[in-house]
Structure prediction request, 643 residues.
Amino acid sequence: MITKTTVFAMLAIGISTLSLAQQQSDSLKVEQLDEVVITDSKFNLKRENSGKVITKITLQDLENFQGKSVADIINNTVGIEINGSRSNAGQNLNYFVRGGRNRQVLILIDGIAVTDASQIANDYDLRLLNADQVESIEILKGASSTLYGTGAASAVINIKLKKASKDAVALNLRSTLGTNQSQNDTNYAVENFLNSVSVNGTLDKFTYLATFSHQYTDGLSAVSVGQESDAFNTHNGYLKLGYQFSEHFKLNTYASFDKFKAEFDDGFDFADADNLSITNQYRIGISPELTYNNGSINLNAAYNNVEREIQSSFPTQFKAESFIGDVFNRYNFSDTFYTVLGVNAQQNEIESFSIPFGETDFVQDIIADDASFTIIDPYANVVYISDFGLNVNAGLRLNNHSEYGNHLVYSLNPSFKKKFKFGYIKGLASYNTAFIAPSLYQLFEPTFGNINLKPEENRTIEVGAEVHIKDKATVSLVYFNRFEEQFVDFVDQGNFMFQYANTDEDFTARGVELVADVSLTKKLKLMLNGTYTNVEESLNLRIPEIKVNAGLNYQLNDKTFMSLNYQFNDDRNDSFFNNTSFMSETVALKSYSLVDFYISHKVVNNQMTIFMNITNVLNEDYEELLGYSTKGRNVNVGFNLSL
Prediction:
């Protein structure tokens, strides 16, 4: 087992290699000064002018993760732990960012917030999204409710889907097959199948993109002692159409469906069971944009329908709908002031039914048909970029909720950049507030709900610095301090009667995030990030105090690429319900290290890429969630064909 001292030593060694970076790397995109980020301002601004350290996963990065899920890819970034991504493919995912939970992480798809009103936490399930559809991912950590509203408390994950080719017709085929086994299996049976096809192009002013993908994964039981495997089966479809009506007006529309079936076992007794979780999601949206001198008027509007069914000893069915509209005006004054004025509106509705054991008809309506709430939020944000290095990003938002009234959030993010011949040094600080509106379940469920709930309040303070050395390295170090109050918890009201309530307790999470991307040579790149998170004991379940990701990318030649990746997760606490004492008990899970290897090679006039990835190369035996299976050494091979 690698100790914490060893891990810190590895970090120090990685940073010291900065002095060895003497040659330019063509592949190190994060270091280019013309790289832009959008998530912290809704403008395309140069990275050097941003007052945040934003993680950007580019299309090239995604190509180097072929065969992995969106959750797997994001889980390699600094400050993020997606618990469940290393387990059975159908395992529920938990997003831990800076000591937060799922409800404090907001996910955007093409700039539009996606949530699931049928979930207790109102969070979006990344299992619904296929990585082959994604073009890039930006991750903004910290409180960001001034721009994005409820749920943007610990992180915003902005996922941009692929766009149409400039050719009239372009075809892309991708197929992966491989193993899906635990540490105790050695037969390497083919149990993992991923396939996708995309047809897209541009015809004069008209653009189109249609994708379809399918995944079937079997061979691994949900619980570690299980003797029966639990399959995961998912289908995804996406259609995007666009038309450039004039030089100043364009319109994009889209429709998508995402479906999965996940078999799962009994989590109370950790035993095999014939349980099944079924989720169907349908989304349609429209995004017109009208540009004018120095500005644009934008609308992002979407309708989302989610149906979930749980087939188990306690069968349940949910149906939820969400409507969201975000209209905003962007205007910049002579590349100095960038302003955003907007109004965000959304409505969530839910129906929920329980099916008494042994019956097949829905006989009891648990949540009334009118279980819904609306949110209308006007907001403003301004970015000032001076010619002497000072940049300021500030915002204000007034949340208007149909159930609890008004709530004000604000942000202030100054930074100062000093340019040198070798690059630049940037210092940054921020004070941002955020809120999490109670979900429909927490408000209206007749047994546990509480109509008097108030929103959770979050505050994040950040202080840090970023050093950029042209064509050689980018290193950043950020300290964060996140404070929570009016925490919504499941509280015992006495006599084993539980209800959701705002607690009087306050919670604090603090830590440090380090990122170093270094060109060791023109062909060799080192990527290193480490996170230290200190969370109060009542909130630290499944959150590693120290997490480290390290990767070596080697471009052997124009056709062949290789990478070696390492991840360390510190000791964590988990809990289980003791059926004898009827109490929840805490158990310590040991630290673990994982090593992955990836190689790709271009063939057939660079139109086809064949690839292979080996995960958990050393076949590490570890626990991610108490009582549940984890993946052992697995091999996946595939190809990507572009015509």
In short: The chain has a mean pLDDT of 89. The longest helix spans residues 4-16. The helical segments are 4-16, 59-63, 70-74, 145-148, 440-444. The first strand starts at residue 36 and ends at 37.
